[in-house]
């Protein structure tokens, strides 16, 4: 599964302090909506600092399926042109492997007036609902039907028969990143003004807003809970640098701390990681930041910390698993509360296999720090869970094998190479069996 049918595992000999410098690549969670924003204009769009990860490859495959041309492509750079959109459908096969594919809905509807996009994972309108996206688009005049697991959306006929969305006042039930991105893109070409309240405030939203403004969109208020978008009749092409990946940066900072090391993550932006860095500091890690990046240095025994995940600027749910790995070897009892996604503690049971003491109580994990972890075979269940097991393996005695690492490849580029450069003993091998 994953990685072109190869089933790999990562083998770690733990107990080495990581030292040196590593670079945070481009943000996966920023790159995906940016790539889909290229659907809004017939002109070429170039993106630099693009991470070479499985999700980006899936997004490009989907865009080419819709008629987008790849004009040129080099390492971490691509130029796309959606001169003509030849298909208005994002199929289940593509959307099921990556939820972000649902972000084609807003741009297609805005530019072409119609779209047919599979709901992620069939019709999972439960735990990570797309109903916020749909309610917002309906407010903007779209007629929406869900037929056989597909969202079929049509914009109203205005402006002499052309199908076009209308500006609207939309209040989101929760500050969903995906819904904010979809509605923001849809509103750029709508007729009139859209006011989006209780919008997500993540750095990735601000990166998308910067790109859309460079394309000629009129957007104000990104970074705050209230966005105002004045629709324009057309958008132009751009050249845009993707922001650094704050989740990858945070992962390397934890790797330094959990191994008793000292690492500088180049390009990391402290302003994108405030809540996380505050917790690292509380855990007894020496954190320093400047324009070049963020550095974490272990400073003796790690201390327990308690935290709850929250939308930005709160503690990111995407760094919760990594922080849990850190607390397994911190002195005292940590309480970690996950408020964003249920089922986001699947890594806890695998950490227990490495000797961690974790008790799950609903949305809370109670972690009692142990003196040391010991290596064992463990299995990755999702992207961030898989990296938490790698981090724990770096700190554990003996050897740890992390199976099903295709989850990891969705969001981390050459993770084992970057860790090896910091002095880790980590390698990728073919896994045998299922």
What can you see in these coordinates?
The radius of gyration is 22 Å and the shape is elongated. The longest helix is centred in the middle third of the chain and has 13 residues, at 246-258. It is built from 14 helices and 26 strands. Helix 6 (177-188) links the parallel strand 12 (169-171) and strand 13. With 434 residues, the chain is of the alpha+beta class. The N and C termini lie close together (10 Å). It has helices spanning 28-37, 54-65, 92-95, 105-112, 131-139, 177-188, 203-214, 246-258, 274-282, 320-327, 346-353, 383-395, 406-409, 415-421, and strands at residues 8-13, 19-23, 44-48, 69-74, 77-81, 89-90, 114-118, 143-147, 150-154, 157-158, 162-163, 169-171, 193-197, 218-220, 226-230, 238-241, 262-266, 285-290, 293-298, 307-308, 333-337, 357-361, 364-368, 377-379, 399-403, 425-430.
